[in-house]
Amino acid sequence: MGLFKRLGKTSDDTLHKQFRLRVKSNLEALVEVLQWFDRMTQSFVSEKCRWACKLALAEGFTNTVRYAHQDLPKTTPIDIEVYIFNNCLEIRIWDWGLPFDLHAKLEALRDSPNDPLEKESDRGLFFMQELTDDLQYIRASEKRNCLVMKKKF
């Protein structure tokens, strides 16, 4: 519950459903992740919202594999959680990588003289930010981080 408070949850948000999936740190697991997300959310979330969230989830998952877990074994788990509240959907991707300052990276990309959308490695961060209403990357413990993406209905 501590992470909820850190993310600004209030008692007004009613949790309707929650789902969890654990996969190995392997890009081939992306298909499984997206199919799972579709199955779990199709009864609760509009097609338009689900599409945006799936794209953000795909970017977040691939960034976790490619960057957060780049020096870790492919057997390292990635935990994905989906929470459906009365007014929003929240996706959490848990990794075991080093800490990363998402907002500082986004600021540096914005301040760069080069168009960040021309760089394949960085544009996913902008996609996630544009497709969601709130994007955070939190160091939740000594060894785990959590990418949190919220999309309002």
Descriptors:
alpha+beta, five-stranded antiparallel sheet, 5 helices, 27% strand
Main β-sheet, spatial strand arrangement? 1-2-3-5-4
Question: Approximately what portion of the residues adopt beta-strand conformation?
Answer: 25-35%
The backbone outline, from C-alpha atoms, is: globular
Question: Total number of helical segments?
Answer: 5
Distance between the termini: 23 Å
Number of strand elements: 5
The overall average pLDDT, rounded, is 88
What is the topological layout?
Blueprint: H1 2-6, E1 15-24, H2 30-41, H3 47-68, E2 77-85, E3 88-95, H4 102-111, H5 123-131, E4 134-139, E5 145-152
Antiparallel strand pairs: 1-2, 2-3, 3-5, 4-5
Helix pairs in contact: 2-3, 3-5
Structural summary, described in words:
It contains 5 helices and 5 strands, in the order αβααββααββ. Helix content is 38%, strand content 27%. The chain has a 5-stranded antiparallel β-sheet with strand order 1-2-3-5-4, with helices on one face. α2 packs antiparallel against α3 and α3 packs antiparallel against α5. β4 and β5 form a beta hairpin. The chain is an alpha+beta fold. The mean pLDDT is 88. The two termini are 23 Å apart.
